[in-house]
Amino acid sequence: MKQRSLSDSGPAGGHSRAPASESAPAERTESRPRPRDGSRLFVLDTNVLMHDPTAIFRFEEHDVYLPMVVLEELDAHKKGLSEASRNVRQVSRFLDDMMRDATKEQIDRGLELPSGYSGNHGKKPSSGRLYFQTRQLSSALPQSLPGQGNDNAILAQTLALQNERADARVILVSKDINLRIKAAVLGVHAEDYYSDKTLEDSDVLYSGITALPADFWEQHGQGMRSWKEGERTYYEITGPAVREWQPNQGLYEDSPEGIEGIVRQLSGDTAVIELMRDHRNERHNVWGITARNREQNFALNLLMDPEIDFVTVLGPAGTGKTLLALAAGLMQTLESNRFAEIIMTRVTIPLGEDIGFLPGTEEEKMEPWMGALMDNLEVLTGGQEGGNWGRAATHDLLRNRIKIRSLNFMRGRTFLNRFLILDEAQNLTPKQMKALITRAGPGTKLACLGNVAQIDTPYLTETTSGLTYTVNRFRGWPHSAHVTLVRGERSRLADFASDIL
Question: Exposed/middle/buried for 132, CB within 10 Å: 0-12, 13-18, 19+?
């Protein structure tokens, strides 16, 4: 994604806030000749590369500059098993590949950024150059600026480049808010790193379900064909609305007698719709659970569908994400024997202060993080006959078929015939999501659950979360589906708190 310049965002550009007569940096900046070709030089902060190791390839036709202090900070963070340390080592490998066989003169002129890098995902390939700091530039920082830290060194380099490079617009890119504030005060163009965003606005994220217009049958009813296969009813429809649909998208009419269906096949202007099974009816309950609204009914249809391998379920707290996924997993594991067992996992990020070291095995260490599993198992076993003893026996039986695993030990594993539930998926980065999804072997189904409004991982937002990333990337694949739950069903207290707090 191409970086958005601060000139497009109004008053966010530091020196544009005051008239030239009141600000010395503004006078100096306005006196510089404007770049004729619109080229830019992006100075990258260390945290950008630690967050996204492919950042140097994502600035399209513009140039990238790395100060020497950034390379020093990368070297200081290369050791460790954290995601940031792994990203630093990947950055070092990228730079090493680019500098292989390069001479000193080529480095001084700037290294060509490779144009075929696959991480751009279809975006315009990079065609700029990568520059390193090869000499000490004269500092332009005010003498009164306190501190001698690395942030000041990066600011000094950016200011010096601004004064030296009249042929390009120099922009500092950092995920550090305080550094961007200091840059704005000094008249340096600074902005956040936007290229990791899957979407510009999370509000336009694909919801997976859409309402049919009131005149739908008038425009699409002619030539309609319907048939039944077993208990399933299908409709073949042709018309202009079909072009906007996606495979496994939910369709409904907003009326008491309206249809609710799933798009099964798409071919140009023609689509095959299958009517949903109504899991709101007690006769079609899933492990004793019935859907309480349209979205939950759609989610259960997707979770029970053997043709769908990957399901993402978004929704606020209390909408039933974990309960629906667990009920569908138990039904297909214990009743139909489609899966050998259920595996539950999640990111171990605390809501408050960490509780410290936890003794025991992998499963015992994960127990405190799996309160949602325990709570939902109580609901699923609450209606069992036989009193407390019968419920306890059923609870133990279910626990024997449900395994709790940590994400820290997922690399290199392959899950065969498993129903894999990833809870709190909004806290994973796109790279972590890829590492987990690629663990799925033959016969495995993966359900990713999360709420993008409750992200606890630093530097992740609603538009950069791995959950948002996978929803957008898997859209259109015939073996994946997505649904956004909107109505809370936990309690009237929880619903009211979600609305007003």
Answer: middle
